[in-house]
Amino acid sequence: MATERTLSIIKPDATKRNLTGKIVAKFEDAGLRVVASKRIHLSDKQAGAFYAEHAARPFYGELCAFMASEPVVVQVLEGEGAIAKNREVMGATDPAAADAGTIRKEFALSKGENSVHGSDSPESAAREIAFFFSGLELVG
Ligand code: DAT
Ligand code: MG
């Protein structure tokens, strides 16, 4: 499997509860490497642009407001099969359905406040990394 990069976001519910380090440790323990990282506070508009693919879903307004409610930590993770590996470490969207040991099982509060975002395909990863980072900020 090829070395890949994926976009990870530690969401407001997790930064607020001071869980950034514990979440990054889960990714690092799985063999993923942080090659870019920053803490930012999204505006409602920026959150809306990032999640534009979900604009028609009933929870879109709530999702954007939540993502803009507190700071987030956006990171690029690199490793073998990083896109799938990151999703595996995150666990299912709904923490009630997430496997034991996953970030969402251990830390997520609900389907909406679920602690982490991870790109779901190579195309999403490329778009989402470019949304937050310039090439200069990716330090492999
Ligand atoms: P994922 O984050 O696992 O890729 P997704 O892309 O389907 O899940 O949805 C994006 C985010 O939207 C998700 O992390 C939390 C929120 N969301 C999804 N389904 C929801 C629902 N039924 N109710 C409230 N929020 C939801
Ligand atoms: Mg998704």
Automatic annotation (TrEMBL):
Does the entry feature the keyword Cytoplasm, yes or no?
yes
**What subcellular compartments does it reside in?**
Cytoplasm
Gene Ontology CC terms = cytoplasm
- Asked if Phosphoprotein is a keyword of the record, the answer is yes
Q: What is its main location?
A: cytoplasm
> What molecular function terms (GO) are annotated for this protein?
ATP binding; metal ion binding; nucleoside diphosphate kinase activity
Q: Which UniProt keywords apply?
A: ATP-binding, Cytoplasm, Kinase, Magnesium, Metal-binding, Nucleotide metabolism, Nucleotide-binding, Phosphoprotein, Transferase
Single biological process term from Gene Ontology: UTP biosynthetic process
What's its catalytic activity?
a 2'-deoxyribonucleoside 5'-diphosphate + ATP = a 2'-deoxyribonucleoside 5'-triphosphate + ADP; a ribonucleoside 5'-diphosphate + ATP = a ribonucleoside 5'-triphosphate + ADP
The record places domain Nucleoside diphosphate kinase-like at: 3-140
Please list the residues that bind ATP: 11, 59, 87, 93, 104, 114
Q: Which PANTHER family match?
A: NUCLEOSIDE DIPHOSPHATE KINASE, NUCLEOSIDE DIPHOSPHATE KINASE DDB_G0292928-RELATED
**Annotated function:** Major role in the synthesis of nucleoside triphosphates other than ATP. The ATP gamma phosphate is transferred to the NDP beta phosphate via a ping-pong mechanism, using a phosphorylated active-site intermediate.
Q: What is this protein called?
A: Nucleoside diphosphate kinase
- Could you tell me the gene encoding this protein? ndk
